[in-house]
Write a structure and sequence with these properties.
Layout: H1 4-45, H2 48-67, H3 72-78, H4 84-116, H5 121-128, H6 131-135, H7 139-147, H8 151-174, H9 180-200, H10 212-246, H11 249-283, H12 288-315, H13 317-325, H14 333-358, H15 362-383, H16 387-412, H17 418-424, H18 426-445, H19 452-473, H20 477-505
């Protein structure tokens, strides 16, 4: 039986998590909405080759981003007890690594350009490498806000930054700067975010001290996390690396554009929840039953949001691409259809990493990730023989296998199994299948002479009506859980406002 202190702690954690989901959700929704609109504008102003050149650079600078804080920021969030020595050691280590990565990126840029046989890659990579100096300086402020579960400030910083770089990117594209319209906003975003974290974030400032003992105490968690993140990164980016090398920048541009569209709902749902779930799991890491219950509830909610979007995108890929992006992107249609299903699996599978992180089992995540990195690369190499469609198809196969294995292993840590996930998403899956049949039927029944924009509008409308009707009439649990979370957040906001008003009066 729980004591009053335990109940109070659970209630406090619940309020923090609800607020965190709401603010992070608002941030992601606005950021992804802005990114989606800006991406459409840039896709119409730029060429697949421009996106491909940036993709070649991001294969390497993205990996450097993974290395930039050595997993130490997450280690600070996960660790129950921290001291000033921990924060000082992480800050100075991160700052040094940022300078090191910037220098290495600039020096390596000619070799990367030669590897892809694209001279234009060299100045782009050298410029983007400057961002590591900025991004690593904000690690401590970001970690402190996450430890305090102060996602409101993180959301406001992220939101304002996304709007800023959207304006910069579109303005540069209209002025004819080509691929630089994609590169410059990346560095602007990193500089702006770090500046705002120091201005609006916690009033922590580094001291001129460094203790190896403090740093070593974090390495048990961070080294395994870094290993897992490294393997996971190359598993997810081996396709870009190999497509850029073997098939060229235009093919890479088509593939990365399809991949980025697929990732919008994935990051919108899983990204929002993971930012809150990891700190919350870290606080209840010794209660597997509670961890499992929360995890399965989150899986249900993510499936409810992502499943109809990804299945709908797969079905309406042709009218969507032609209407939204334009005819120059038509070759990416079959790739988008395949990757949409990949996105559905990844959106749920990405949540499993929070179990590894929250329970401190990054060693297990590293081992599982290592095995699938090898499998993923091999399947992509096989798929290259059939072009970008072949890569997407083989990537989908390896993702499905990874989903089954990783979910089973992660759930064992909280005394569960894969069947728990299957049961959790059963009702949502049934509604999604019914919606898909409705969308396909609309496409078949409408005359072939209908304009693409009319076809897209009719299919989206029909799918939305069918899906929400089934959720409501079928009393789907996840649907009512979302409504409950929204209601709880409104209540929390009202009570917070009441407390603030009272404190002002008194």
């Amino acid at each position: 039986m729980q004591s009053s202190a335990q109940r109070a702690g659970a209630a406090s954690l619940g309020r923090q998590a609800t607020s965190g989901f709401a603010w992070t959700g608002l941030q992601r929704l606005t950021e992804q909405g802005t990114q989606f609109v800006v991406g459409i504008i840039l896709a119409r102003l730029l060429t697949p080759d421009d996106f491909g050149l940036l993709g070649m650079v991001l294969v390497f600078t993205g990996f450097a981003t993974v290395l930039s804080d050595l997993g130490l920021g997450s280690a600070l969030v996960q660790r129950v007890e921290t001291t000033a020595d921990h924060f000082d050691a992480v800050f100075w280590t991160s700052a040094f690594v940022g300078l090191l990565l910037t220098g290495f990126g600039m020096l390596a840029s000619p070799w990367v350009a030669a590897f892809f046989n694209q001279p234009a890659v060299q100045p782009i990579m050298a410029f983007i490498s400057l961002g590591f100096v900025f991004s690593t300086l904000g690690v401590i402020q970001s970690s402190l806000l996450k430890r305090a579960m102060d996602f409101k400030r993180l959301a406001l910083i992220g939101l304002s930054g996304r709007i800023l770089i959207g304006v910069v990117g579109v303005a540069m594209a209209l002025l004819g700067y080509g691929v630089w319209s994609l590169a410059v906003p990346i560095v602007v975003s990193q500089a702006y975010s770090t500046l705002m974290l120091w201005i609006a974030g916690p009033r922590w400032r580094p001291q001129l001290s460094f203790r190896w003992s403090a740093l070593r105490s974090l390495f048990g968690f961070s080294s395994n996390l870094l290993g897992f993140s490294t393997l996971n990164y190359w598993l997810r980016n081996a396709d870009n690396f190999l497509i850029g090398k073997v098939l060229g920048s235009a093919a890479l541009g088509l593939y990365t554009r399809a991949y980025s569209l697929m990732m919008v709902p994935v990051t919108q749902a899983s990204g929002v929840i993971s930012k809150v779930l990891f700190p919350a799991f870290s606080q209840i890491q010794d209660d597997p039953d509670r961890l499992r219950a929360i995890y399965l509830r989150v899986v249900r909610v993510v499936a409810l949001v992502v499943a109809p979007i990804m299945v709908g995108l797969a079905i309406t890929a042709r009218p969507f691409v032609l209407v939204v992006l334009g005819e120059q992107w038509e070759p990416m249609i079959p790739v988008l259809r395949i990757l949409a299903i990949v996105g559905l699996l990844q959106s749920i599978n990405a949540l499993g990493s929070n179990i590894y992180l929250g329970t401190g089992r990054t060693d297990l995540a590293f081992k599982v990730g290592g095995g699938f990195s090898v499998v993923g690369v091999l399947t992509i190499i096989i798929g290259l023989r059939s072009g970008i469609v072949g890569v997407a198809a083989w990537y989908a196969g390896s993702t499905a296998l990874q989903f089954i294995v990783q979910q089973q292993i992660a759930l064992r840590l909280v005394d569960g199994n894969l069947w728990d996930v299957a049961r959790a998403v059963a009702s949502v899956s049934a509604c999604t299948v019914a919606m898909a049949l409705g969308v396909i039927a609309v496409g078949k029944l409408l005359p072939s002479v209908w304009p693409m924009v009319g076809l897209l509008g009719a299919q989206v409308t029909a799918g939305a009506i069918v899906y929400f009707a089934l959720l409501h009439l079928g009393r789907v649990e996840a649907y009512h859980e979302i409504r409950q979370v929204v209601s709880q957040w409104r209540t929390w906001r009202q009570s917070s406002a009441g407390v603030e008003s009272t404190s002002v009066v008194t």
